[in-house]
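Thread: quick sanity check before group meeting

JM: Hey all, I'm pulling together slides for Thursday and realized we never actually wrote out the predicted structure for the chain we discussed last week. Dropping the sequence here so it's in one place. If anyone has concerns about the input, flag it before I start.
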Amino acid sequence: MIQARVTDRDALAARSPSELAMYLRANAWAIRDRGRGGIVWIKTIGADEFEVLQPHDLALRDYPSRVRDLLSVLAVAEERSELEVLADITDVSRDVHSIRMFPADHGPGLIGLDDGVQAYESLRNLVVAAAYSVGAEQPRAVQPARKPTEVLRFLREVAIGAPAEGSFVLSVHTPIPPRLSGQPSLFDDDVADALEPAEPFERRVSLQLYDAVRAANDAANDALVSPDGLDVFTDAVSRGVSANLCEALVGLGGETGFPFELSMRLAVARPLRARAFEPIRFRRDHLPVLASAAQELRERIADEGVLVVGNVVRLHREGAGPGEISIAGAVEGEDRLRRVWMTLGEGDYAQATLAHQEMRSVAVRGDLVRRGTRLHLMNPSAFQLAIDRDEYG
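JM (edit): ok, ran it. Output follows.
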């Protein structure tokens, strides 16, 4: 164990009295005395009794020094490094998901530049997939590109921790409202569960992320031995598995498909009864299965109500009536340029022809499906010549 001492006054001062108190309470420390100098907490471990003084006023000139003294005692009592204890105090009211990746040809704490960029984006997409599943009225095998306001608000609250060694580790930190009532129930377990307050949205997303990743891992294992591997993924949609989630997991494996594992630690300020969260390990052979499942789900199930804005690059019809066009442009929710095929009625086809002749962009909504290497927009509607992209929100 690295016996590093924390001496950074700014880092020590950043730990609030409430964070210190929640950490001590959650780890079975008891209050012995309260005074102007702070709160005295005690804990007996084996034959030893430990005592710490928790400052309760950030305005104290020696506040960082008092936090330093408290941290030193906690490290001895818990037989851990001060850095580890400080990290847990920092996350006392945060759920933490850690992704430990094992990229080849790189030392501990390092990852290829392209794989690292992809890992961050995939981690964000993993959180988005879980948040959408919680906020949606029903699970969807293909989640829409346009996300509800609640999901976007949630994303602004989530933070990413600094990369750590141990191969290459990324972490997502989700603020969780503390549970203020920590007293044991006087009722039996069944009644206590019924009276347990509903978990907040943030905690439900944390649990959904872990449970959906577990379900995807189970489905990947089953698909390797099942005669119809896609069935196990469609059956797991009710558990939060989606094409979006599978694609995010594949992205965490980088270009070469290296293994990785996900683990979760709940905020101690809001404990959860009777749940164990074992690390979930993805092998190299899981990733092609997940990629195939995502592709087949997208081919079978449309992404509904997607906006496409771009330029008409191909027109084809025989005689009068409907005709086929393709648009090169942006698909709502994606940054890269895509080519999308669709069949339009006679009136919209005439508009598309005009847009092509005048080199004007167009906008259209529909249900997006992937067929092989092509994207097709089914049930196109509201086709129009674009003037300003903002008017198509």
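AS: nice. Residues 94-178+187-300 form one domain. Confidence is low (pLDDT under 50) at residues 183-196, 389-393.
JM: adding both to the slides.
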